[in-house]
Design brief:
Blueprint lengths: L32 E10 L7 E2 L10 E4 L2 E11 L9 E5 L4 E9 L6 E6 L6 E6 L6 E20 L8 E9 L4 E5 L4 E3 L4 E4 L2 E3 L3 E12 H4 L10 E6 L1 E10 L11 E10 L2 E2 L2 E9 L8 E2 L20 E7 L9 E11 L2 E6 L5 E3 L7 E7 L14 E4 L15 E20 L8 E9 L7 E8 L5 H4 L1 E14 L3 E10 L9 E4 L1 E3 L6 E12 L3 E10 L11 E18 L1
Parallel strand pairs: 26-27
Antiparallel strand pairs: 1-37, 2-37, 3-4, 4-29, 5-8, 5-19, 6-7, 6-18, 7-17, 8-16, 9-15, 9-18, 9-20, 10-13, 10-14, 10-17, 11-15, 12-13, 20-28, 21-28, 22-26, 22-29, 23-24, 23-25, 23-28, 30-36, 31-35, 31-37, 32-34, 32-36, 33-35
Amino acid sequence: MTFKHFWLTGVSAACIFSSCVDDNYDLSDIDTTVRVNVNDLTVPVNLDDILLSSIIEEGDRIKVVNGEYAVTEDGKFESKEVEIPTFTVRATSPKATEFNIVFIPAAIGLLDAGHFDINCPEQKFSFSATEIPSEIVSIDRIGGEIELRFDFSLKGINAVARKIEFRDLEFQLPKGLNITEANGGSYDATTGILTMPEQTTSGEELSIVIKANEVDFKTLGAELDYDKHSVDISGNFYVRSGKISIKREDLIGGTTPTALKLIISYNISDFTLSTFTGKIKYDITGVNISDVDLSDLPDVLNQKGTDIRLANPQIYLSVTNPLQKYKLTANTGLTITSNNGDQHTPYSIDEPYFTIGNGNADGVYTFCLAPSNPTQKPEDFKNAEFVKFSTLGNILSGDGLPQSLSFKLDNPCLPEQQVENLVLGTGIAEISGKYSFLAPIALSNGSKIVYSEKIDDWDTEDLEYMTITKLDVKATITSELPMALDITAYPIDKDGNQINNVEIVGAKLAASSQPQEINIHITGEINKLAGIEFEAVATAGEDGRVLRPDMTIKVSKLRPTVSGYYEKEL
């Protein structure tokens, strides 16, 4: 509220002598001090209507949104890349087996001269993995290139036959493999048995290579020891049965063998995982949101004693979930810390977290965090999911506004959940988003705004010799502000210091648009008055109406009156 200054003039004119005095007379004993009493002198002051826009100006933080004042801040954030490290499954292959096989002649007249039966003893393999990432909770399937190899060596066969045929081969492999190459064989993942048709070789050696790209841990019988972050599993890996046949036409010199030595070597390769299916949990890191700087708010909102509790501020979040192709969801909480000098007060959402889903076509999810779900939302957030944040209205409260607000996501994570064919060992993507802090200045019950203004250009010769004993400021005020006003005024000296030896009775103005009479009454002894500091403490009621720049305070019939005396030595 701005009052135009006034001048006390003309009073001294009644106290000036214009006659001449003879220098021969001694006037030292004559009192030449003149006092003129002033009683209820009305000082004419005109005051224009006060628009709230002249008190609260727009800036980087205060904006007019839909015709209403709001504290706003926009920003972006992103996490570090989500990545679960890969790991290697080590395989231990059986040792080579060596045994004699006996030739069994066929009946005369058959094409086959005879065959050797393969009766290999059972052999064991093992899979093991250590230092499995803690993000992996349980394993269903793992993907990676696996090679299984059987090498046959039949010593001495070249001396009796030009070529031989391996028939009816049956191999015991690890269970649960997804076979990609098997030399025409047929594999049963449940039993791990691979049957293979005829294989022909013209030498003493035959190699059979089988390739797979996935292992089903449940079928294999493997289970993750989560506490030790390891897996150990063993099983059979050998040639269950088969025959080595020789045709009569392939015999050398018509001679049939009696017995030969067969050596079988086994090898299962180690494999490094490329994909993973099972349960995971993952802590999202590297999310930094810049502080909201409130140091540039208008002075009227930054006075000492200001205590603002917002009626229904809102935080709008838009988050992109790049992991929804894996049908993964993410959880996070949110805490805002109000930094006011040495005081750091945290405010958190009501529930520990809210969930970023995985069902939207574009992978974008929007949220509205507020004490209550607003009826109107920005266009970009019209379908935002409501997240209750009961204490958000208190983030600007306290003795004066905070200098800044700090945003922190609480425990952002992928909670324990099932995932299919998650790529391991490479960065997948960042979880990113943007936020919009929108706090319409609709003050809740008990909020206070302290506004003060000094009128300090009254330091004139007239006032230097004026002693004021009573100052009344009367006016009719019509206020559109949705808050009550306690108005007072303090006389100040030329240095801007408050003159304290006075009694002040302020005025109260109800939160109403009806015209109301006020009177500020100051009594005491005021010397060398240089100005007045006006202070208005606005206290919000319960209606929570938002402040608008077009709200006015109309002042009419403004009449300051002064009483006292003017005293000066001539």
